[in-house]
Amino acid sequence: MSTYAVRVKPGASRTRVGGCYGDPPALVVAVTEPAVDGRANDAVLRALARAVGVRPSGVEIVRGHTARNKAVRFLDGPAGLDDRWAELLGRAP
Fold first, then answer.
1. Rounded to an integer, what distance in angstroms lies between the CA atom of residue 31 and that of residue 19?
2. CATH number for the domain including 79?
3. Helix segments in 1-93, DSSP class H
4. Closest Cα partner for 6 from 32, 23, 25, 34?
5. Which of 28, 39, 62, 81 could form a disulfide with 19 if both were Cys (CB 3.0 to 4.6 A apart)?
């Protein structure tokens, strides 16, 4: 299972998945939930699951639980996950 880099923006005006941050590129995930008591982390997992078409329980944070930069893993990644990830980053698959 591969891990994917994510940059979280908690407390955003709306939830949004897409865009690129840094080098190597991390997927930007903006969530409305604040970074309090793990609420932003839960919102990130739900947003990522919706964006790639898996159950929220099929995504886990493997690194960066208390940081904006996180590494996530998809337990039951759908076919074409790497292509979908590239599309969300704004890069051609």
1. 14
2. 3.30.1200.10
3. 39-52, 81-89
4. 25
5. 28
Is 60 exceeded by the pLDDT of residue 13? yes
> Contact 88/18 with Cβ under 8 angstroms?
yes
Q: Which domain holds residue 82?
A: 3-89
**86 Cβ contact list (under 8 Å, min separation 6):** 92, 93
- CA 61/CA 69 separation, integer angstroms: 11
pLDDT in tens, 42-74: 999 999 999 999 999 999 999 999 999 999 999
Give the distance from CA 89 to its chain's centroid.
Answer: 11
CA distance 82 to 3: 11
- Number of domains forming the structure of the chain: 1
